[in-house]
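Hello,

Our lab assistant flagged a job as stuck in the queue for most of the afternoon. It eventually completed. Since we weren't sure the result was trustworthy after the delay, we are filing this so someone can double-check. Below is the sequence as submitted and the structure that was eventually returned. Let us know if re-running is recommended.
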Amino acid sequence: MANQKNGSLNSVNIIRIFLLASSAAYLIGAAAAPDRGEMLTGLAQILMSPAQLTKDYFIIGSISGTFLNVGLVGLVCAAMTCLPGAVVNGATIAAYFLTTGFSFWGINFLNMWPFFLGVMIHALVLKEPFPKYVNLAMFATALCPLASEMLLRYPNSEEIHGVTLSGVALMLVVGILIGFMTPAMAAHSPNVHKGYDLYSAALPGVLLGLFAVAVLYKTLGHDVPAITATLGGSHPGVVWTFCMVFFALCVLAGWWLNGKSAKGYMDMLKDTGHKADFVAKYGPGLAIMNVGIYGLMILAYYIFVNLLMGDALSGFNSVTLGIVFCMVCFGAAGSHPGNIWPIMVGYVAFSFIATNLLGGVFPVNAQAIMVGLCFASGLTPIAGNYGWWAGILAGGMHYFLVTSIPAIHGGFSLYNGGFTSLVIATILVPQLETFCKTKEQRLAAKNAKK
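-- returned structure --
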């Protein structure tokens, strides 16, 4: 295990400071945004708008209002990790960045509270301290769009009726119930995919959404709102600048925390990522450095695929910015450049085959596919443990399936792509276990021949 000390700071405090600093970065982004005069009005519009997949908060509200929303959500999440007794590890970084990433297009400072309250009640019923469940409380926000739907539009499928007493009550009841049930289901999820889907909380995030839609809409005879994306113009200057500055600072901070060195990073790049906590294995410095390097790689990928399709500047909206942070979330708990590149290659290769040879309609730079790749990154342990070819196959399978999943949960679950990864892992891993050897097994066989 890596040395947990850095001067007077241990890894827990380093992570807490990192998350608080990240929240401050979002707030600085709000103050520096070109439309900062619309910060509060933009935030109000975001809070009072439905959040069903996929809503670009830059166009729903404003750029500055979006960053303010992300910063406020981030501050709450970071503050929860500072509660005495909170479990703080690599998964905490994952939960934080997944939640703040979705705050660019689905989670807001209003719709998250019922889910937190539900997890608090779960802990209370079990007579356990809530800080033990901080990570799960953040993961429980997968169905925040459903909470907004209950508050603002239900049972209408199109017309927004605004905030009513019955809407508030329904949002609280639905959100609390989902939050209450999430921890037990999330704990069971690894038994389904054996740790090969990093987005493990996608199991409750989608199945509870499926059940809620069945009860609230199908059974009661209401129409499920049509799944229509609301996407605005591209803002490459905003997205590129924020990501490059943020992730470059992560690299520098990680280098400094690691004793002004990158020593040990090559070992991390050889890690399979299967059931891995990079903070515990390599220390918080290298984990934060990996978040930065991984984030810059993701940004470069999205620029590359747009160049490949002949339009380098399009598609950089709040959704794209959000998925960069959703994708980088496991940079401290399983994903790194060494095991993500096969997934990326799989998406590009299978997209080319589907659109150019089979008449498919989803090019690799389509917003749905860009979002899909983000959550296909949950399959990096497959690439790490079984090899690059398995990662390419897993990425390609994810590409074919991801656009079919929203229909089962009405577009209300933000963990759509993570659930797709769970399905792929459930299909693919048994085949790999039957016919192939893991990295450890191959190494053992090689050593036995010597």
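-- support follow-up --
The delay was a queue issue, not a problem with the job. The result is valid. The chain has 22 helices and two strands. Confidence is low (pLDDT under 50) at residues 1-8.
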